[in-house]
Amino acid sequence: MVGGSIHVGKHQDDLREFVSEHHEALAEMPTAFFQVSLSSATEENREAAAGYVETFISDTGWHPDRIAQFGGALRFSEYGFLKRLMMKRIAKDLLEEETSTSSDVEFTDWNAVDAFAADVASFVEGRLGVPPDEAEPAGR
Ligand SMILES: Cc1cc2nc3c(=O)[nH]c(=O)nc-3n(C[C@H](O)[C@H](O)[C@H](O)COP(=O)(O)O)c2cc1C
Fold this sequence. Notes:
The protein has 140 residues and is α/β, with parallel strands linked by helices. The chain folds into 2 domains: 2-72 and 107-134, no CATH class; 75-105. The chain has helices at residues 13-27, 46-60, 81-95, 110-128; strands at 2-5, 32-37, 66-71, 73-74, 105-106. Strand 1 (2-5), helix 1 and strand 2 form a beta-alpha-beta unit. It is globular and about 50 Å long. Flavin mononucleotide (FMN) binds at residues 5-9, 36-39, 72-74, 83, 86-87, 90, 94. Residues 1-99 form the Flavodoxin domain.
């Protein structure tokens, strides 16, 4: 499972480089990719979020078996002055409203994260031929 977040319209360079370099090895095993962004937090920006996934796939040549997109978080308490200012601007564009920087905001649907993890686990077990009685119960 490989995952990363979107910063200013892009995934982390290390993530893209790692996957580009190893896409042939990844193609030989069951794999999953998840992306975290603010764009996934609103209906209006879902297309943009999907576009980031498409770009990642075409840039790296890797075709993960399972893909998920999750809303992220604005952790203003951890940002320095410039990052806080930049994120306030990006949040205003994407959420179409002023966001107070005085507290952190989380947009992640953790039930969707749990469901994705369970789906990936059962897919991997199926591909690797793990008998059901040896498979970990979902959620552990
Ligand atoms: C500097 C910065 C730039 C960001 N740019 C975008 C962006 O262009 N599009 C988007 O959808 N989300 C953007 N986000 C939102 C992040 O994807 C989201 O906050 C995510 O939870 C960040 O996770 P991380 O801090 O662990 O990398 C940005 C966040 C930060 C901190």
